[in-house]
Amino acid sequence: MLNALGRDVLYALRVLKKDLGFTAVAVLTIALGVGANTTVFSVVEAILTFPFPVSRPDRVVFIYGENPSRNQRREGVSADDFLDWRAQARAFEHMVAISFRSYNARARGEAVRVPAAQVSEGYFALMDRPLTLGRAFLPEETEPGRDRVAVLSHAFWQKELGGSRDVAGQNLTLDGESYTIVGVAAENFFFPARNTALWTPLVLEAGRSERDDRSLFAVGRLREGTTPAEASVEMATIAARIAQAYPKTNEGWTSRAIAVRDDINSSAGFAMVVLYGSITAVLLIACANVANLLLSRSTVREKEIALRAALGAGRARVVRQLLTESLVLALAGGGLGLLIGIGGMRYLAAMVAPDPNIGFLAEDMELSVLVLAHTLAISTLSGLLFGVVPAIRGSKADLDAVLKEGARGGSGGARHHLLRNGLVVSQFALALALLSAAGTLLWAFDRIHTADPGFNPKGLLTFRIALPETTYGTPQQVASFERDALDALSRLPGVKSVGATTALPLTVRPAQRTARVVAEGVSENDQDRTANAIHSVVSPSFFETLEISLLSGRRLTDQDAEASQPVAVVTPALAKLYWRGVDPLGRRLKLVAPGMETPWLTVVGVVPDVRTVSHSLRYIGDEIPQVFVPYAQQPRGMFAVAVRTEGNPVDFAPLTRRTLAGIDVNLPLDDVATLEQVVGRIDTQNRFFVRILSGLALIALALAGVGVYGVVSYSVHRRTREIGIRMALGAEPGSVLRVVLKQGAVLAGIGFVLGLGFAIAIVRFLASELAGLGASNAAGPLTFAVVSIVLLCVAQVASFIPARRAVRVDPVTALRTE
Q1: Helix 302-310 vs helix 315-352: angle between axes, to the nearest 10 degrees?
Q2: pLDDT value at position 415?
Q3: Is the pLDDT of residue 9 over 80?
Q4: At CA 176, angle to CA 170 and CA 179, rounded to 5?
Q5: Alpha-helix residue ranges (DSSP H) falling in 673-732
Q6: Under 8 Å between Cβ of 556 and 570
Q7: Where would I find the H helices in 98-227?
Q8: Fewer Cβ atoms within 10 Å of its own Cβ: the N or the C terminal residue of the chain?
Q9: Rounded to 10 degrees, what is the CA torsion of 298, 303, 307, 309?
Q10: Phi-psi region of 586 (alpha: psi -120 to 50; beta: other; left: phi over 0)
Q11: Which helix (H) or strand (E) holds 115?
Q12: Lowest model confidence (mean pLDDT) among 162-176, 313-327, 457-471
């Protein structure tokens, strides 16, 4: 058996070597399809095999609060609810709460802002990862007054403390207070986020916060033999008891346990569906192309195959030989495709490396055993996919029929014509679907970047400041620092203006829309239908700095002080919700959020809708209502500063640092960058996704064009005699050209019609996933119009080369070949 297989492979190599042009085109076609699959699969593998840094991750679950009636999914939990969960649940060995936060720290003599996590008792036991040095937190260290201890991440220990082995017991200043370092985490441990620098104890005391303040993140380790579904049933029962006891804050709320791997995978579900569908379409188009090439080639080999049959070769033997040739082609294409895939991985890794959210893909996107196995499997499957039909059809050659056909090239041309056309039509149908998806996302991407943001983002240097409560414990101290900082910065040469805000435009996450608006004089029914608003606390100079125009009323001023009447500036999106057709100036509203309720605020001005939510393909819809209140009336210890400069804002960063260090040397500036740089980092995820899909669409388009060229070129070759007769009888070259071009146009047109329903379904799916896109009727029709024109042009260009060859046919030469 092995000897026979070896002979088949050697014969296949000899046959493919004889026709290097065919072999090169087929191998390159397969390589494009396999290379695209390899690149995208490496991305998918990096996401789906995300290394959750705990032992036995199959038993670790995320525990979410949910309110289906409000369409609130995967929410956090309040401290009191968590304490009830932990006391009543029996499905878990450990259950812990986590609070995301950051600290101002001094390391290597410099003030830095470090991302951290506060964790409740049992956190390191749940994670079950041995520490590199020292110990985990003791139970008593999660009690009030005894929580000034810290465990460092391995990366922070190495970078900021030089990897000193005697670090345990040393002190570290965080937010102006001394913490004792008790341990260093394992080298690859980074939960809850990859950039977590250290952990401190989370003190949980019943009654210290409201039950609707769902700011904690819960994680549990299941008992042996318990499933996430069983844990969810228990948690839902507990949540129902809590809701019955506290209906004001917990009515309608339940809870659910989700396995960490399922949670991560479902979060990336939209991208995975689109990417998997895209690479499948590209691979099918490539296979259809090679199948077309093999069908065309089989007509040339009809005499060879018929002679082999006449000499005693069975049909199964011929099919085996032809399939062997297909597999040799596929494996050669797979080898080249692997090289293309590696190049694609490196390109994508370089693209995502700067992004703090998906930068881990640059490390995990590599040539692993799984990627190699996938490439081999895809190559082999492709060989069978594009080889089986040509092998079966090619094995039917009849010696008598072939000899009777003689010089006309065999009997297979007419027999295979319909199948080849069908393959090209299917290529165009798949290309239509893929191009429609890419066009829809490109349209959404363009809409994000061309829409008026309501301000001027150019020439702005931005950074964030977090004032520690130990130093700035009163609202007056916070407000005083903000005034001093803005005054000092505004006096710098080359600075036009300086403003502060708690919600820097284009960087706010949708989850931060937590303030509910209550408008005076608006009925209960109208209150229920309103959306939450972004609550921005800003300095009076904020509007001038960002060059936000005034629509009516006035902006905030320095006279809007702590003792003055509480005021607010609103956007048209909010005014339309409450006071449609009525001037909002002089109207009153208040903002309600967990742990916060403002006094009644009088509306004194209206400014244009400011695009505040981050550049996200999934949040491109209507403007979000926004309320601006003066900083002096609601001081916040965490805020962003925007500095508008005359020259390059990057050049002002060192001077800005020195200026604020003169006010407080222990205060670090976080995320110092131009606003365009900040948005660019956020935008990396959009560009990453859109570029992958666009690249796949272009590959599909090129392959579809090659398919049309192959079919039309073969048709011209088969009709050489007919074209010669037409030319001899006086046919104009233009009429012959039109006939040939018409063939390509018809194939593209049929492919467009057959693929239109599939493409419409894909666009509707994307519209349902991309908020705001479904509300616009422009995306679908415009996309289909552009895609249809592109497909028709590609078909015509692909048909023009053989058409041009056809009009140059010499009638005498064409007839002489007969």
Answers
A1: 140
A2: 53
A3: no
A4: 30
A5: 675-718, 720-728
A6: no
A7: 123-127, 154-161
A8: N
A9: 40
A10: left
A11: strand 110-119
A12: 313-327
Question: Which secondary structure element, helix H or strand E, spans residue 581, and what is its range?
Answer: none
Encoded tokens for 188:
């690859």
pLDDT in tens, 388-436: 777 776 556 554 554 555 444 444 445 556 777 777 888 888 888 888 8
Q: Which two tokens stand for residue 728?
A: 């001899």
Secondary structure (3-state) at 539:
coil
DSSP assignment, residue 633? T
The residue ranking higher by pLDDT, 689 or 640, is 640
Averaging pLDDT over each range in 5-14, 126-135, 308-317, which range is the top one?
Answer: 126-135
Q: What is the pLDDT of residue 78?
A: 92
Give the chain's radius of gyration (CA, Å). Answer: 34
**CA pair distance 257, 220, nearest whole angstrom:** 8
Q: Give the span between the Cα atoms of 716 and 802, in whole angstroms.
A: 7
> Per-domain residue ranges for the chain?
1-60+229-410, 92-215, 415-446+685-818, 468-666
- Is 196:145 a contact under the CB 8 Å cutoff? no
Hey, how many other C-beta atoms are within 10 angstroms of the C-beta on 229? 10
CA distance 33 to 434: 14
Query: Which amino acid is present at 292?
Result: N
**Beta-sheet strands, E only, within 2-109:** 60-67, 72-75, 92-107
Rounded to an integer, the average pLDDT of 683-707 is 79
CB 678 within 8 A of CB 494: no
Give mean pLDDT, residues 577-598. 84
Predicted structure pTM score: 0.76
Q: Is the pLDDT of residue 107 over 70?
A: no
What is the phi-psi region of residue 253: left when phi exceeds 0, alpha when psi lies from -120 to 50, beta otherwise?
beta
Q: CB burial class (10 A; 0-12, 13-18, 19+) of residue 263?
A: middle
Beta-bridged to residue 106, according to DSSP, are 111
Half-sphere exposure of 554 (CA within 13 A, CB side): 11
